[in-house]
Specification:
This protein folds into 4 domains: 131 residues, Immunoglobulins (Immunoglobulin-like, Sandwich); 92 residues, Immunoglobulin-like (Sandwich), CATH 2.60.40.10; 73 residues, Immunoglobulin-like, CATH 2.60.40; 106 residues, Immunoglobulins (Immunoglobulin-like, Sandwich), CATH 2.60.40. Helix content is 3%, strand content 45%. The chain has 1 helix and 41 strands. Strands 29, 32, 33, 35, 36 and 40 form a 6-stranded mixed sheet that branches. Strands 6-5-4-9-10 form a 5-stranded antiparallel sheet, with no helix packed on it. Strands 12, 14, 16, 17 and 18 form a 5-stranded antiparallel sheet that branches. The longest helix is centred in the N-terminal third of the chain and has 15 residues. The structure holds 2-acetamido-2-deoxy-beta-D-glucopyranose (NAG) (6 copies). It is found in: Membrane. Its main location: membrane.
């Protein structure tokens, strides 16, 4: 009872004292400049004022003045917390001059902690808490789901970008990927990225892994990976009789044999539909085995060709993409420009062609100008854009996109700018081609095309991706 009375008396006295400014009697120091999340932070308050010290108050002002709590420590032996209901005393420990926040979390980032002596606002000093934390999400390999497959053609130069967002500081990224040529980490705001570049040969299929490590989580690395699948063309086909390889020219005695096998391997492995047998100009079979049901007979003699075709589709390749095309309106007698607008693919070098579909005339380049359009020029046209990848050691691949659009040639609808004695009358009149203009000789006029708007957008075709296939063929003569 006695001590309670004392406290009340003392609070009244201190609050009533007036101070004119920060009196510099309190300094505050922090055990860490940056505290890793999950660890504790000890703040020490140092009072050098001349008044007798009764109480120290710690205030967590939160960040941006979002007040969190006050902890008032009475400076009597032993120092005790001046009771305040609702304060969770499991979150901190204290001594007369220190406050230890037991488990600093990222919620404490930028908390502003103030220490005041004797409840004198002007004596306060503050520190801003800096928490280091690890990113909450694992790193990401841009464009690929972790655990996915990355297809590349053997010997080509490939690269992947790993990216990690969040954490303070940003995580350390490293790659484990073939010969591992890594760029320096690139920081962009709250994200860090690192590119790895590599090349690999057939049968070296392996995993490329990006690891994000962080001092706050020393033994818990986060990773993302792709399985690299190295594609290569089918081998030159070999003929086999009874599982034994034979040369390209063999004599077969009638009736002794019914099947010849064409053998080839690659990645992807050739499937049944990848094999074609041709005799002369005729397709005589598909699949790896050519059959003569009932045996080879007179008339079966000749030259047979086995062709193996597989498609190698690398992950990093994408075709250029055309913008949606309008139905174009043109005015007879005027010049008109067709333009193919597209976004580049990878690789960026693009070949474009404009084709007049009704008679097959084509022009190369992104645009074509018709100098005096007439009705015969109207009709369906096509833009084709194409890129080509030419990796070392493999055949080229072509990515294409096409878009068709109609050109309408309108009869000459005109706007007349009328001027009199070279002074423009500034009036615009729309008239028809057939109208009698009826101006006298002193009036000159200028004819300008009317802008015909078309809002009729027409995406006629989705982009197509087409790979030219590697063909390896070998002849067999019977
Ligand atoms: C408190 O501050 C005074 C004056 O700045 C300094 O001399 C003293 O060492 C400090 N004490 C502690 C415990 O930091
Ligand atoms: C610290 O706080 C976090 C979040 O509240 C909690 O998950 C973790 O278990 C705490 N750690 C300790 C050591 O108390
Ligand atoms: C911390 O809070 C105190 C009390 O509200 C304020 O006077 C001080 O300016 C704040 N410090 C910073 C850096 O915001
Ligand atoms: C990675 O590959 C892409 C596409 O091939 C290319 O545009 C980019 O410049 C490459 N980056 C590096 C760092 O090599
Ligand atoms: C990143 O690595 C460096 C050098 O090993 C280390 O000093 C730093 O603390 C690490 N950063 C993080 C966030 O772990
Ligand atoms: C296709 O049509 C255009 C316009 O009618 C004409 O100029 C061009 O000569 C034609 N080309 C062929 C190959 O017929």
């Amino acid at each position: 009872m006695l001590s309670l009375n004392l406290r009340i008396t003392f609070v009244v006295i201190v609050v009533c004292r007036m101070y004119a400014g920060a009196d510099g009697s309190v300094t505050i120091s922090s055990s860490e400049v940056t505290v890793p999340e999950g660890l504790s932070l000890t703040l020490t308050c140092n009072y050098t004022g001349i008044d007798k010290l009764y109480v120290i108050r710690w205030t967590n002002n939160g960040k941006d003045s979002g007040h969190k709590y006050d902890i008032t420590i009475e400076q009597s032996e032993p120092c005790t917390i001046f009771g305040k209901p609702g304060l969770d005393k499991t979150l901190f420990t204290y001594t007369c001059f220190t406050l230890t926040i037991l488990n600093v979390t990222r919620d404490n980032q930028n908390d502003n902690l103030t220490c005041q002596a004797n409840l004198n606002f002007n004596s306060g000093n503050s520190v801003i808490v800096s928490v280091s934390d690890a990113p909450s999400d694992p790193p990401v390999i841009e464009g690929y789901a972790s655990g996915g497959t990355y297809n590349m053609i053997e010997n080509s130069i490939e690269n992947l970008t790993c990216s990690s967002s969040g954490g303070n500081p940003l995580a350390n990224l490293t790659w484990s990927c073939f010969n591992n040529q890594m760029s320096s980490p690139i920081e962009q705001g709250r994200t860090v990225k690192r590119v790895v570049q590599w090349t690999a040969r057939r049968n070296e299929n392996a995993r490329c892994t990006c690891t994000a490590s962080h001092a706050v989580r020393p033994n818990k690395h986060q990773t993302a990976f792709v399985n690299v699948n190295i594609l290569y063309s089918p081998s030159t086909p070999l003929f086999k009789l009874d599982n034994t390889a034979v040369g390209s020219s063999i004599r077969i005695v009638s009736d002794t044999i019914q099947t010849v096998e064409c053998d080839s391997s690659g990645n992807p492995y050739p499937t049944t539909s990848d094999f074609t047998w041709i005799k002369g100009t005729n397709v005589v079979g598909t699949g790896p085995v050519l059959n003569w049901p009932g045996g080879v007979m007179v008339g079966d003699d000749g030259s047979y060709t086995c062709t193996v075709e597989t498609t190698l589709t690398p992950s990093d390749q994408n075709p250029p993409k055309l913008q949606t095309f309008t139905r174009e309106s043109a005015l007879e007698g005027y010049s008109f420009m067709i333009q193919c607008v597209y976004s580049v693919g990878n690789p960026a070098r693009t070949k474009s062609t404009i084709t007049r579909l009704f008679n097959g005339t084509s022009w190369s380049g992104d645009s074509h100008t018709m100098h005096s359009i007439n009705r015969a020029d109207a009709g369906l046209h096509r833009c084709t854009v194409e890129n080509t990848m030419d990796p070392t050691g493999a055949d080229t691949q072509t990515g294409t996109d096409t878009a068709d659009f109609e050109i309408n040639a309108h009869p000459d609808l005109q706007t007349i700018t009328v001027s009199y004695d070279e002074i423009s009358l500034d009036s615009y009149t729309e008239i028809q081609e057939s109208d009698n203009l009826g101006f006298n000789a002193a009036v000159t006029y200028e004819i300008m095309p009317v802008e015909k708007e078309s809002t009729d957008y027409d995406a006629l075709k989705d982009p197509v991706y087409k790979n030219t296939k590697r063909k390896n063929s070998m002849q067999k003569n019977l």
